[in-house]
Write the structure tokens for this entry.
Amino acid sequence: MALSVENHDLPQTPLTIVVMGVSGVGKTTLARLLADRLGFPYAEADDFHPAANIAKMSAGTPLDDEDRAPWLRAIGGWLKERTEAGTGGVVTCSALKHRYRDTLRAACPGAFFLHLSGGHELVEDRLSHRTGHFMPTSLLDSQYAALEPLEADERGAVLDVGPSPEELVEMAVALLRPVNGDLA
């Protein structure tokens, strides 16, 4: 299921897309495929975390807003750079709360949020089978508790992660065409 959220009549700028949602929902998989499909630069939000944040999460401790602030500013900076360079871009970021998305929008007002939504059981199963990542399954409940769905004042759309990643990419492109008619 896809839920389209209004475009908000922003000026046409290079499209910057934030693929958001809880850990394990498939942000990285979809964002990489979408960036490849669109020919856009790609960035993984985890790469913007300071070492202290990674250590904290690896120990099973959720981040607080103070921990997240420099991380969100760095991601916002990347989005702004993509807009200014005229390249557009796709970045993953949990962006669970409205105020976190506000931080990203402060740097890049035209950012489009693509919220990947999946049931707790499905995402927990994905997390339990994921290797080489610092985010433990034990923090999933805190992510769902913190999640604030996109609101009407936010430029974005929701995609249910039931279909295959390839199908989701095509669904995402279809949702993005009205926002940026240049998409092939």
DSSP finds seven helices and six strands in the chain. The first strand starts at residue 2 and ends at 4.
